[in-house]
């Protein structure tokens, strides 16, 4: 496992981050989750990503238990705040109240005194940016958070936040957590250039395109039983955008390329996102340890320019590149 600096910071993260979005607390029982985390450590993964909203806060609890007994300095822990974690009017968003309360709850569930990277899970149109950024800065000054980042913010939103942070002397954002894969490239035209300029690193999610880039979904065929595409509680809605014959046929064009490089299609997909120099880490999930053992083989793989061009040709026009697709929920009002 190779490591990279998170943006322009001095903190290193593993090229692959273990994430538990739709596994811990829902798809995977606690015992299986502990086995997956153990395998991740054995494979050299030191970075672990979760969020308070995953599995209704249960994912943080499961991850906290799985990390129990590990030397705290031996791993980097990421979590996020924004989505509802209760039924109250203030149980969501990026108000100072919700950020502070959510951070303290996350610390308790994760069984730790501090969070290495605390992220705004979406942009909040209802809360003044100054309020959000001030709360994040206070958490850093209190020692409860080391670094801050955001997930799925547009370039315009990022730039506005950095301007306020600089003007007020607040600690700057250092990371972005967007969806990014061969099929979903919306960050390339605006977010990545701005991030490179401002020292922000990408920790990308869904590098395998919700599993579509494994090649297991075939054009004209029903999705395999038990797969994410058939699991209404496990991301079926998100994967649906890729479940059409045009995309699935393009993905089949990648299989010969992967075989020629002695990689699985999933390894090729992960290696592809890691070729982007602005990517600090790619998040992978797992329901069993063997999946981790296979996917970590993508770390350190170098793809020649000719291979990258061949992949672009294979995918063709099915890749989504519109930067306007980076969207946060509109105001509740």
UniProtKB/TrEMBL annotation:
InterPro entries: K_chnl_volt-dep_bsu_KCNAB-rel (IPR005399), NAD(P)_OxRdtase_dom_sf (IPR036812), NADP_OxRdtase_dom (IPR023210)
Xref: Gene3D superfamilies: NADP-dependent oxidoreductase domain (3.20.20.100)
Domain NADP-dependent oxidoreductase intervals: 16-314
Keywords: NADP, Oxidoreductase
Matching Pfam families: Aldo_ket_red
GO cellular-component term (any): cytosol
GO molecular function, one term: oxidoreductase activity
Coiled-coil intervals, chain numbering: none
PANTHER family, alphabetized: HYPERKINETIC, ISOFORM M
Family: Belongs to the shaker potassium channel beta subunit family.
Protein name listed in UniProt: Unannotated protein
